[in-house]
Design brief:
The complex is a heterodimer of chains A (274) and B (209). Chain A is α+β, with helices and mostly antiparallel strands and 274 residues long. Chain A contains eight helices and eleven strands. Chain A is flat. The relative contact order of chain B is 0.16. The chains are: A alpha+beta (274), B mainly alpha (209).
């Protein structure tokens, strides 16, 4: 019987079980620290490979009935949905490396897998925070209801800027706690800074937020978000998976795959800092 | 005080977590079996007993199918406390409940055989509800994002609104192991061609990390 997961064709790859386990473990470890959007957005899914679209719960009026039909009083409407986007990022694994894993090697060379994991995670993160027009996804920074606030590179201003931003959300009825999702450069500036008296800037910001400062590769600047349920939704079909393409004498050609879409439900729950 | 038979719980359209809706049904099942006790004590006739049992029997069947279509596949996806074992138990319990409900349908209401079948359904259902509340529901509440609980709640309520009777619904027994295998494949938790690790990497939500 054919199932919806057959399309990954993993059984056709010349990869024994132990090596598959090592490849999957490596991908999961890398991706788990990079899929930042999943720390912020609700996760709806996975609905599986056959899951096609996220329901928006709304309709558009259709201009006409089928050709040749006129029915007094009849109305026609069409459901509005957000179709899921599919991403695949190819990578390779050396067959010699697979052989060594079977022999018990504990330090397999998965450099290309690590690259693919970074790129796949970046696609998801960029789509969620900055949008993906071709996939119909409006990102958090695009949807935010507020004018952006300048954060800059001067860390001494961060507590004041973040406190003002938090106050802006709170005054708009968006209660905390809040998280500050920030680019790696900004995060590094924060963690290496201590204020007068030796108080770590990271701790000071966490106190203002009531939440966390989140290291976020793929995010430009920073975004203040409410930590709550229902503001942002990732609707997932196939969660990150590894499939098989083909192989030759030296190399196995694989790919990382995911299907998802994203929706901002509460634009007031995020404020952009540049 | 006597317990009167009541209508099954109905969705009023408000967003509800699926675990709340399942618990609503559990409360109703207990009430209705208690009400059957009262009818028996009051020496109700065959027609009264049959009228009281019909909606309870139908809901027991529909509740099981709705859980199998909507709740347990996602529990297999997000559960952390051996969800496969919880699901195997649940499907086995559902089969016991279904068998008893269908046995009751073979006898006239009020006969000894009918009461024996009703009691068997009650015993199996009581065991199932206790296990489900203690294990599966508790596990799901701990692991599932709120949005998933609400989305499944919407689907669960919709299913029960769409199916007031068992007409057109497959209420036959399911092989628990085949069910778990199929559900895991559909959820991307397991691939038949995936060696030991399943098709999905199983990362899912990272909220709160």
């Amino acid at each position: 019987m054919t199932t919806v997961t057959d399309h990954l064709l993993r059984s056709h790859a010349p990869i024994p079980t132990k090596a598959w386990q090592a490849i999957d473990d490596e991908a999961k470890e890398r991706l788990s620290s990079l899929l930042v959007a999943r720390q912020v957005a609700d996760w709806n899914g996975p609905g599986g490979w056959a899951h096609d679209a996220h329901s928006l719960g709304r309709t558009d009026r259709l201009s006409a009935l089928p050709p040749g039909m006129t029915v007094d009083g009849a109305e026609a409407r069409q459901r509005r949905v957000l179709p899921l986007a599919e991403i695949t990022v190819p990578f390779t694994v050396s067959r010699a490396e697979i052989d060594d894993i079977q022999r018990g090697a504990l330090d397999p060379d998965f450099d290309d897998l690590d690259r693919a994991a970074r790129e796949a995670a970046l696609i998801e993160t960029r789509a969620v925070f900055h949008g993906w027009p071709a996939a119909g996804i409006v990102g958090i920074t695009e949807a935010s209801s507020y004018p952006s606030v300048e954060l800059g590179a001067d860390c001494s201003r961060y507590p004041t800027v973040v406190a003002v931003a938090v106050d802006k959300l709170r005054r708009n009825g968006i209660e905390g706690p809040y998280d500050l999702v920030i680019s790696p450069d900004g995060y590094t500036r924060i963690v290496e800074t201590a204020e007068e008296g030796g108080y770590l800037l990271l701790d000071h910001l966490a106190t203002i937020l009531g939440g966390s400062v989140i290291w976020a590769p793929g995010v430009d600047g920073a975004v203040l978000v409410r930590r709550a349920e229902g503001d942002f939704i990732i609707d997932a079909g196939q969660d990150m998976s590894i499939g098989y393409r083909h192989h030759d004498a030296d190399t196995v050609y694989l790919y990382l795959e995911e299907s998802f879409t994203f929706r901002v439900v509460e634009p007031d729950a995020a404020l952009v800092l540049t | 005080m006597r317990n009167a038979m009541t209508d099954p719980p109905r969705n009023d359209g408000a967003p509800r977590d699926i675990t709340e809706l399942i618990m609503d049904d559990h409360v109703w099942f207990r009430q209705e079996f208690a009400a059957l006790d009262d009818l028996r004590a009051g020496q109700a006739d065959e027609a009264e007993l049959a009228a009281a049992w019909a909606p309870l029997a139908a809901r027991l069947d529909l509740h099981a199918v709705a859980e199998e279509e909507i709740f347990y596949p996602k529990l297999l996806r997000v559960g952390e406390e051996d969800p496969q074992d919880e699901t195997l138990d649940a499907i086995g319990d559902h089969n016991d409940i279904r068998d008893a409900v269908h046995q009751a349908a073979d006898h006239r209401a009020g006969t000894d055989q009918w009461w024996a079948a009703v009691r068997a359904a009650r015993v199996a259902n009581d065991e199932h509800m206790a296990e489900e509340e203690r294990d599966a529901i508790a596990d799901f509440k701990l692991q599932a994002p709120a949005a998933l609980g609400l989305e499944l709640g919407r689907r669960f309520a919709q299913y029960l609104d769409d199916h007031r009777t068992t007409g057109g619904v497959d209420t036959s027994d399911k092989d628990p192991e085949a069910y778990v295998r199929g559900a895991e494949e559909d959820e991307g938790v397991r691939s038949p061609d995936a060696g030991s690790s399943g098709s999905s990497l199983g990362i899912g939500s990272l909220k709160g990390r």
